[in-house]
Design a protein that fits this description.
single chain, 213 residues, 24% strand, binds coenzyme A, Acyl_CoA_acyltransferase, Aminopeptidase
Length: 213
């Protein structure tokens, strides 16, 4: 219990302190984790480091695994990369305007997010940035991973001269923490988002629509 409180205090301190660090140093986030060995009274606390970096071509399987586990938490097994996924990834890796970020703990990928900077003629030709696919592995949530990735991404968008960084987050995320994550980073819910699915409506969106009607 005392250790758990201690780890929370360290985490809160690091969050405040790391905001003042240059981006290169802030890429390394301190993440307070609680590892439990199955006995309620034997909780072992450790402070571990999480590194944020841009993805490399060989990271595709690890990223797909993070996405798969988000769709189905029981889907932990690695699976083959399809031709379409490989072609899409190759295109993504070649694009100068698109960056995929990864968070790693002990060389294991635990989170990801994607940034797109769109060349733009308005706002004095400052590019506009878009964020997509922010996902953290279930076992590593609420430890500051998404915050660490987003801080790096925001810093890179600033360095790229972007005037505005936008993201859409479905209304169902108003209660699961995602909206709090973004507002804690300075995003304002000042715009109304519109979407039109041209192929498939995702299952999670269909489920959210069903509960609204
Ligand atoms: C949303 C998500 C990316 C957050 O990742 P994370 O690494 O757990 O987020 P962080 O630990 O950096 O949390 C930062 C802050 O966001 C808020 N937050 C994040 N998850 C929350 C939750 N489940 N409940 C309430 N607040 C939450 C809190 O304010 C938190 O700060 P705190 O822990 O000091 O209270 C993660 O839950 C996830 O992958 N969800 C599934 C995919 C998804 O919904 N992505 C977003 C789509 S728009």
């Amino acid at each position: 219990m005392i250790l758990a409180v201690f780890s929370q205090v360290i985490r809160a301190f690091w969050r405040r302190f790391s905001q003042r660090l240059p981006p290169q140093l802030a890429d390394v986030a301190l993440v307070a984790m609680t590892a439990q060995d199955g006995h309620a009274d034997q909780v072992m606390d450790a402070v571990v480091t999480c590194t944020v970096r841009t993805a490399r071509p060989e990271d595709l399987p690890a990223i797909l695994q993070i996405y798969a586990a988000e769709r189905d938490p029981n889907d932990g097994s690695p699976r083959a990369v399809s031709d379409l996924e490989q072609q899409t990834w190759t295109r993504m890796m070649r694009s100068d305007d698109l960056t995929v970020y990864l968070a790693e703990i002990n060389d294991q990928v635990v989170g990801t997010a994607t940034l797109m900077t769109m060349p733009n003629l308005t706002y004095n030709c400052a590019p506009t940035a878009f964020v997509e696919a922010v996902v953290v592995a279930i076992d590593h949530r609420r430890t500051g991973i998404a915050t660490a990735i987003m801080r790096r991404l925001l810093s890179d968008a600033r360095s790229a001269g972007c005037n505005k960084i936008q993201l859409l987050s479905h209304k169902r995320h108003a209660t699961d923490g995602a909206h709090r994550l973004y507002t804690s980073l300075g995003f304002e819910p000042e715009a109304e988002g519109f979407r039109l699915y041209l192929q498939q409506v995702p299952a999670a969106v269909r489920a959210a629509q069903a509960t609204q009607h």
